[in-house]
Sequence to fold (453 residues):
Amino acid sequence: MSLRFLSIARVGSTRKQIAVAYGQKGGNQNVAILEKLVQIRHRLARLLGYSNYSDFAIEPRMPMTSRKVLEFLEEMSEQLSDLANRELTVLKELKMKEEGDAQFGMEDLLYYMKRGEQHKVDLDIGEIKRYFPVKLVISGMLKMFQDLFALRFEEIKDVEVWHDTVRLFSVWDASSSDLLGYFFLDIFSREGKYDHTCVVALQNGCMCSNGSRKVPVAVLLSQCPKEFDGNSALLRFPEVVRIFHEFSHVVHHISNRATFSRFSSLRLEGDFAEIPSLLLENWCYESISLKMMSGFYQDITKSVSTEACQSLKRRRDMFAGLKLKQEILLCLVDQIIHTSENVDIDELIKDLHPKVILGIPLLEGTSPASCFPRIAVGYDAVCYSYIWSEVFAADLFATKFKDDLLNQHAGLRFRNKVLAPGGSKGPLEIITDYLGREPSLQPFIQSRTRNAL
Fold:
């Protein structure tokens, strides 16, 4: 909640108080716990023959070494510096106009980013929501995936399911009419239901000993609102993107043609698993595809306007340089503490902060390490992964799809070359083979700069 206040607090001294309180919320106790966790991880890695924990954690992933990750993060930071500096200049000018003070601190970042967005993006989020009735979003999404990947979805009626709002579909290859798998849509909220949007693999695809193929089965879970008094329930735009992202995982699971079950699930190599879904998120920001999933709730023939589509993309990319710089700082801290022993984490952040965040010092009295949960649990030594996946996804989109979003030939080739192998081939081999060259980070930098201030 404190971060929400930081984006709306107009008084600078209030923002600073909130930011300092938030930056102290974990306190020295959390930092001590984190330092102990890091020591134990290094000990584990040495027992297994590695020089540090980061090399142990990254060896089975796409970069393979911590050195490669550090080089990637440093290059990303450098490439983003020009963009981030331009963004920071805009924020400083806004602060000077509003408060008569050009001195800019971390406590000002969220507030003036929001103010900048209000100045530069003509978009009413409440109005946009009225163009995304749940049923229309789902039907448009299903049509788009069928058209792009040469698939055919058939709903199976009168089947026993665990709730009357759950729908079951079979998936067929549109050309060969081969059955590829099944998926359930369990997207409406109800009491006692798991409250996240995600995909669960119910059955992996694989070849059986008799030569037949066991087909994959998945379920998409979400918490969409239900219709009330005959009025169509509406989705906020971030919910549209989230469902589209997760359904991409469903299609990845169904398209997987690996021989063995071990390589057929959604449990792909960590840095690769999100790349197809992050690639396909781009369709949520392009006019031709977004119009397929939208329609005014009182007249669905009126899709969201081209101008609104452009504003949504511009909003996504607003202050991308500064946002990514903050993420890169976290990733660098994660890598350094997991490659070197006995690091004073607070001092490390204090030293790195102005170097990465364009000269802005760490807010005095705060200890960001006390509130970095991803480093402590779940993403230890692999916080870089999401940015890494975004970079690869941007390259795939710019190279293969940007100029023809609904090109079925490109989609079918992506399905066969990238989605079908699953874990049976190395991710870098899959992507390099599909692109016909080594991946590049330039398309990602260019995509974030294109809609810049």
Notes: The CA atoms of residues 206 and 261 lie 5 Å apart. The mean pLDDT is 93. The chain has 20 helices and seven strands. The longest helix spans residues 66-99.
